[in-house]
UniProtKB/TrEMBL annotation:
This is Unannotated protein. The keyword Transmembrane applies. It holds the Pfam family DUF2304. Keywords: Membrane, Transmembrane, Transmembrane helix. The chain crosses the membrane at residues 6-25, 37-57, 69-93.
Length: 120
């Protein structure tokens, strides 16, 4: 079996394993539907990469890289995109939490004022 075929097989198994793990996590409600869909797409892309392995070698020759380096570069770009997307999500959640905490503090102060007026 050629090296390209072995790499394609590893990618295919990896993509299917990723999909399987994500489905289990989603069924146990440990992963929200939004993120489950995103990770299932990643697993699908990994499996599709297995079918595109012959082209990876051609891309590598054009860029003067080994096929493994091409795959690692593509993986790094994907991980960078996921990290940026998650950073955006966390930033939005932090802003919502801050706004909620401020609103809570204002309501608590208003309630204290009303209680003081009622007791006088």
């Amino acid at each position: 079996m050629s090296t390209t075929a072995q790499q394609a097989l590893v990618l295919l198994v990896g993509g299917l394993a990723t999909g399987s793990v994500i489905l289990r996590l989603a069924r146990r409600r440990l992963l929200s539907t939004r993120y489950a869909i995103g990770w299932l797409v990643v697993g699908f892309l990994i499996a599709v990469a297995a079918a595109l392995m012959p082209y990876v070698g051609r891309i590598g020759r054009l860029a003067d890289m080994t096929p493994t380096a091409v795959l690692l570069t593509m993986s790094s770009v994907l991980l960078l995109a996921i990290s940026v997307q998650l950073s955006i999500s966390v930033s939005l959640l932090q802003e919502r939490l801050r706004s909620t905490a401020e609103a809570h503090a204002l309501l608590a102060r208003r309630l204290d004022e009303l209680e003081q007026r009622a007791s006088v």
